[in-house]
Design a protein that fits this description.
CATH architecture: 4-Layer Sandwich
Bound molecules: zinc ion
Number of strands: 17
Structural class: alpha/beta
Number of domains: 1
InterPro entries: Pdiesterase2, RibonucZ/Hydroxyglut_hydro
Protein name: 3',5'-cyclic-nucleotide phosphodiesterase
Shape: globular
Order of helices and strands: EEEHEEHEHHEHEHEEEEEHEHEHEE
CATH class: Alpha Beta
Oligomer: single chain
GO molecular function, one term: 3',5'-cyclic-GMP phosphodiesterase activity
Strand order of the largest sheet: 6-17-1-2-3-7-8-9
Helix content: 10-25%
Number of helices: 9
Largest sheet: 8 strands, mixed
Organism: Maudiozyma humilis (Sour dough yeast)
CATH superfamily: Ribonuclease Z/Hydroxyacylglutathione hydrolase-like
Low-confidence stretches: none
Mean pLDDT: 96
Pfam families: PDEase_II (PF02112)
CATH topology: Metallo-beta-lactamase, Chain A
Length: 363
């Protein structure tokens, strides 16, 4: 029985603005529209697009060599064959959405989002959430939402975005609908919207400041665990590998936490960035992973578990950068990951899929 329902509202790392990172997550067993979002790069516009009947079932839009590509090229065919990956929202979600014009349906689904868990305050992770925020006051579909994250995320959002300059201070307590709820590093807390889930934020590295290369930028990995079954998914913001010459291994600490707290078969999916192909000049990663580095992290995860094989762990790959190229970089990267993993002991059976915008995964 699937525990997690993950709808990919946006799954790239830009620079095209309509597909940046936002994952809507539901408890697959609940019979309502309650959900949370990890990041808010996009929002209502992406929900509305997912509500339209697909013009080309089984195919997805690409902006490269072919304008349409079969979704099997992006998603492990075993997931589509079993129904674990589908286009659009799940039937279970749509059961609770009334027949109505798409804008009304989108606002009703938006109403169900109880919390945003923001990984870091870069624009490609917040833009949709900010622009959508006025809709919490929609008289016909009002809602209350929390903006959650570690203080390095919530404080700048409060001071530099919802400050009555860049955007109205819709988080003002007098309005009472949108509020900040800072989290503590490595401390689990229950999701108010989905109380069956405990969510633990881990701080990780995400490059350095342009103006001061010695000053690092942080991001967040969220570990989401079902209290009863202990089924777990890991949802990562932008990140890079731990520095080699420092005592702190923040990503290593995440892998260690998983190995100590989550049985491998209970690890239902790892949703992680792979912004670049292996062709990238390693000095131009700017706080991100490449396919080679992602495979390196999977090896680190396997080592943390102390097992011979990660078996058929589901890895959903997000935040691919839409670079100037002939082939869709999402296809380049998924092919690279499969080839690299096939040649590494213990990673041969790992299942790789792109976190494809407009698709829902039941895991
Ligand atoms: Zn990003
Ligand atoms: Zn970023």
């Amino acid at each position: 029985m699937p525990c997690f329902e993950i709808s990919i509202l946006g799954g790239t790392g830009g620079p095209f603005e309509a597909s940046t990172q936002c994952f809507m997550i539901r408890d697959a067993r609940r019979r309502d529209l309650a959900s949370i979002c990890i990041d808010g790069g996009v929002g209502l516009g992406a929900i509305a697009r997912m509500l339209r009947q697909p013009a080309h079932p089984g195919a997805t839009e690409s902006l490269y060599a072919n304008e349409l590509e079969p979704i099997q090229r992006y998603i492990d065919p075993a997931l589509t064959a079993s129904g674990a990956a589908t286009q659009g929202f799940s039937d279970r979600l749509m059961m609770h959405v009334p027949a109505a014009p798409i804008v009304q349906q989108a606002l009703i689904i938006f109403q169900g989002i109880g919390e945003y868990y923001i990984t870091h305050p870069h624009m490609d992770h917040i833009a949709g959430m900010v622009v959508n925020s006025a809709a919490v006051f929609e008289p016909r579909a009002p809602s209350k939402k929390l903006i959650r994250g570690l203080p390095f995320t919530t404080t700048p959002l409060q001071e530099h975005v919802f400050n009555d300059v860049i955007w109205p201070q819709l988080t003002h307590p007098l309005l009472g609908s949108l509020s900040f709820s800072p989290m503590q590093r490595s401390e689990p807390s229950a999701s108010p919207a989905l109380p069956q889930f405990d969510i633990t934020p881990f701080e990780v590295h995400h490059g350095a400041r342009v103006a001061d290369p010695n000053d690092t930028v942080s991001s967040t990995v969220y570990v989401i665990t079902d209290r009863l079954t202990k089924d777990t998914i890991v949802v990562c913001g932008d990140l890079e590998k731990d520095p080699e010459d420092g005592p702190d291994g923040q990503l290593a600490a995440v892998w260690r936490h998983l190995a100590q707290n989550v049985e491998l078969p209970r690890l239902r999916a790892l949703l992680i960035e792979c912004s670049n192909s292996k062709a990238i000049d390693e000095t131009r990663l700017f706080g991100h992973l490449s396919s080679i580095r992602l495979v390196g992290e999977l090896e680190a995860l396997r080592a943390a578990y102390g097992v011979d094989s990660l078996d058929s762990l589901t890895v959903l790959v997000s935040h691919v950068k839409m670079v100037y190229a002939d082939e869709d970089p999402r296809l380049t990267i998924i092919d690279e990951l499969r080839q690299l993993a096939a040649a590494r002991n213990g990673l041969e059976r790992v299942s790789f899929s792109i976190a494809l915008q407009g698709c829902t995964f039941m895991l």
